[in-house]
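Hi C.,

You asked whether I'd gotten around to modeling the 137-residue construct. I have! Everything is below, sequence then structure, no commentary in between.
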Amino acid sequence: MAARLTHVALFVAEAQRTVEFYRTFAGLHLVHDRTDAGVRVVWLSETPDDPTFVIVAIGVPPGSPTAPPHMAHFGFDLPSRAAVDEIAARAAAVGVLAQAAADGGPVVGYYCLLQDPDGNLVEFSHGQSINPRHGHA
C-alpha cells in the first residue's frame, strides 16, 4: 500500500496575507476558500485546476515555537477506508495513534492521526479530495 502526500496544513495569523505571499513569491493559486466556525481556511496549489498537492492555511495564529499547534500536519491519501483502519490499528499497537479513525464529512473524509517521533501530526485519509472541481467548497 502506498500513501500519497496530498497536503501540508499550517496555522497562519492572517489567511489573506498568506495567500498574497505565496501568490507573489511562489506563483501559487488559491483553489479553495471557506470559513469554518469563524476560521478562514484556504488551499494553495501550483496549478489552478486539478491540484495533486496543496498547502492548507488555517487562519489561527501558530502556537509557541517550542510546540507545533494542534492539527498542523502532513496529509497522506490512502486507497480505502480499510487502509485507514489498518494504519490506525498498527499505530495504536505501537503507541503512536493520536486520533482514532473517524469520518470527518465530505471535505475531510475518513481519517486518523498519528504522531511521529518528534510529536508532529501525520494524517492518513480516504475520500478527502483536494480538487476544487469535486464540489467541496
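If it helps when you're writing up: The beta strands are 4-11, 29-36, 39-45, 54-58, 73-77, 97-103, 110-115, 121-126.

Thanks,
B.
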